[in-house]
Amino acid sequence: MRILVTGGAGFIGSNFVHYIYRERPDWHITVIDKLTYAGNEANLNGLDSSRYAFIKGDICDQETIDAAVSDCDAVIHFAAESHNDNSLHSPWPFVNTNIIGTYQILEAVRKHSKRLHHISTDEVYGDLELDDPNKFTDQTPYNPSSPYSSTKAGSDMLVRAWVRSFCVQATISNCSNNYGPFQHVEKFIPRQVTEILEGRKPKLYGTGENVRDWIHTEDHSSGVLAILEKGKIGETYLIGANGEENNKTVIEMILEIMGKDKNGYDHVNDRPGHDLRYAIDASKLRDELAWKPKYTDFRSGLEATIEWYKENEEWWKPQKNETEEKYKQIGR
Ligand code: NAD
Ligand code: TDX
Predict the structure, then answer these.
(1) Using CA atoms, how far apart are residues 108 and 68, in angstroms rounded to an integer?
(2) pLDDT level of residue 58 (50, 70, 90 thresholds)
(3) Which residue, among 156, 37, 161, has the nearest Cα to 90 in the 3D structure?
(4) Is the CB of 174 under 6 A from ligand 1?
(5) CB of 286 closer than 8 Å to CB of 220
(6) What's the rounded Cα separation, in Å, for the pair 140 and 239?
(7) Average pLDDT, stretch 228-251?
(8) Could you tell me the distance, in angstroms and rounded to a whole number, from the CA of residue 97 to the centre of ligand 1?
(9) Sign of CA dihedral 12, 54, 228, 46
(10) Whose CA is nearest to atom 4 of ligand 1?
(11) Total Cβ atoms within 10 A of residue 242
């Protein structure tokens, strides 16, 4: 099996590559990544060139994508602009990469008759009330809020249309908020941990009552592998591990684990259009494909992640100042 992983130098993509490298020793992995500010080739250090190759390239570039796709058996499509705050200030890269890039991949897998798995997010479903007993399922209507989530919704719609109109052999997964090693410091958990390591206070948007459904990125990887190997073409699977926590609780937990006063954080301006709550019902993936998450205790997964950032300062330091400069400009 030869797989092409788009966006494999980013957070979830690189964790997926390491996971597959361990779990499927007879597979060959090619990563294609543009190495935007969010991509880092060093995330893929330690892989042997007999089983792994790297292409620096843009998924929006038709010729590059066509050649890379023609050379593999299956594409796992992670590449995206992924940060909501950036999408509110600079939406064009999101429209370009998330929609045009997905279009180019669909055209290439159609031309070369290759299997595609498209990685998406629970944010396409909009948000839930705090007391809503119903979680997101693959039947929940799309209702995205931000330029980021609307371009992901658009990319999902393209995949569905290419399956129906052109019989492209594709599946889709919509996962909840990931945490773990190699996550860019712009994102919630790494930002707070590295603020504390830098001697500053964590930053909570608004009241902090917003709920995210946390999943360790390795459990996302195992869900994607299950879908790739056992999923039904044309189906959408939601991936989540029952990890709902509100942001205030997570910040307090981080402070406590790092030996600080749990009230030692700053309130900053809220994100415009801030989604209130995400929650995933992953029973289809659990029941039909026998998937189950390994990291069921959020606190211990968080402790291990904090430890990773403590031990890998040389990895996150180069991103830190520029990221905080961006936040300063938008008042968050
Ligand atoms: P990330 O921002 O850490 O990584 C994205 C990667 O894509 C980077 O390596 C970047 O260089 C690459 N990339 C961006 N534009 C590209 C282009 N035009 N051509 C080639 N490569 C390009 O993102 P992430 O958090 O790892 O997210 C990966 C995927 O998972 C995305 O599709 C995202 O929507 C989805 N997702 C993320 C989460 C989450 O919690 N982070 C949850 C559910 C789904
Ligand atoms: O400093 C912060 N303070 C804060 O309170 C930051 C960066 C975020 N937040 C809040 C906003 C959200 O409610 O924390 C929550 C999580 O924020 P992000 O890490 O930016 O994630 P979110 O907007 O929920 O989107 C994430 O999950 C779904 C990923 O970034 C997306 O790529 C994925 O699709």
Answers:
(1) 9
(2) very high
(3) 37
(4) no
(5) no
(6) 14
(7) 98
(8) 10
(9) negative
(10) 10
(11) 16
Burial of 207 per CB tally in 10 Å (0-12, 13-18, 19+): exposed
Q: Determine the pLDDT at residue 36.
A: 98
Query: What letter does residue 83 receive in the DSSP assignment?
Result: -
Determine if ligand 1 sits within 6 Å of the CB of residue 65: no
Q: Are 169 and 105 in contact, with CB atoms under 8 Å apart?
A: no
Instruction: Summarize the confidence of residues 1-25 as an average pLDDT.
Output: 98
**φ and ψ at residue 298, rounded to 5 degrees:** -60, -40
Please give the number of the atom of ligand 1 that sits closest to the Cα of 97: 18
**Is the CB of residue 247 below 6 angstroms from any atom belonging to ligand 2?**
yes
> 2-179+214-239, which class in CATH?
alpha beta
Cα of 41 from ligand 1 centre, angstroms: 14
Do the Cβ atoms of 301 and 180 come closer than 8 Å? yes
State which of 83, 204, 212 you would mutate to test the pocket of ligand 2, scoring each by most atoms of that ligand within 8 A of its C-beta: 212
Query: Which sequence positions are flagged as catalytic?
Result: 122-123, 148
Q: What is the dihedral angle through the alpha carbons of 291, 164, 87, 192, rounded to the nearest 10 degrees?
A: 0
Tokens standing for residue 26: 């007879």
**Contact (Cβ atoms closer than 8 angstroms) between residue 236 and residue 173:** yes
The pLDDT of 292-318, averaged and rounded, is 98
Please name which ligand lies nearest the alpha carbon of 247. Answer: 2
Q: Which amino acid is at 60?
A: C
Cα–Cα dist 280/273, whole Å = 20
Q: Are 119 and 152 in contact (CB under 8 A)?
A: no
Q: Is 265 in the pocket of ligand 2 (CB under 6 A)?
A: no
35 Cβ closer than 6 Å to some ligand 1 atom = yes
Ligand 1 closest atom vs CA 119: 32
| CB distance 101 to ligand 1 below 6 Å | yes
Round to whole Å and give the CA distance between 24 and 12: 18
Q: Sketch the domain layout of the chain as residue ranges.
A: 2-179+214-239
